[in-house]
Write a structure and sequence with these properties.
alpha+beta; 4 strands; elongated; single chain; four-stranded antiparallel sheet; 5 helices
Length: 173
């Protein structure tokens, strides 16, 4: 027979005293489910703290998951490198591709410029580039399209530092 418990929110952390109490109840002959019900813990928490093999299996699965994530990340990096190399080679050899690529990048730059010009900033503001971390005061009342120090297109919006009586305030975007 299954006993249903009403979920009471996140439970307290398992303390060494609670683990000792679990061990005592197990020595008395209670099952893992009975211990969990009595101490108002989940069945898996009791198993994790009382059975070393179960804990090792859980840790092993977690390590496997992390390795899989890392493997996927490495695959994505390799794929990106391959794509960049392909674009570079095709850009050099195919004139039609080159024209399309240049028109798309110009369109993208215009889009970024329009977005940045919509962000109005005060005259005393200082911008901090997300790429090179250099700070500068723009001579226009909006976020410029390119960083003056590194020359990169500002896709990630910079931090805007406003100078005032109360000190500097950073507005991150």
């Amino acid at each position: 027979m299954r006993r249903w418990r009403i979920w009471k929110g996140y439970q307290k952390k398992v303390t060494p005293e609670l683990i000792e109490r679990m061990r005592e109840l197990r020595m008395q002959g209670l099952t893992y489910r009975e211990i969990a019900h009595q101490l108002d813990l989940s069945f898996t928490t009791v198993m994790y703290h009382l059975i070393p093999e179960y804990r090792q299996r859980k840790i092993k699965k977690q390590v496997q998951r992390e390795r899989k994530k890392l493997k996927n990340l490495n695959y994505l990096k390799r794929r990106r490198t391959y794509n960049l190399r392909y674009i570079r080679e095709r850009y050099k050899s195919d004139t039609e591709f080159k024209e399309k690529f240049l028109s798309r990048s110009a369109k993208y730059q215009r889009k970024i410029k329009i977005r940045n010009q919509a962000i109005k900033i005060s005259k005393g503001a200082v911008l901090v580039c997300k790429y090179c971390s250099k700070a500068w005061s723009p001579h226009v009342p909006y976020v410029p399209t390119y960083c003056p120090s590194c020359g990169r297109l500002i896709v990630k919006l910079p931090d805007i530092v406003t100078r005032g009586e109360k000190g500097d305030r950073i507005h991150s975007n």
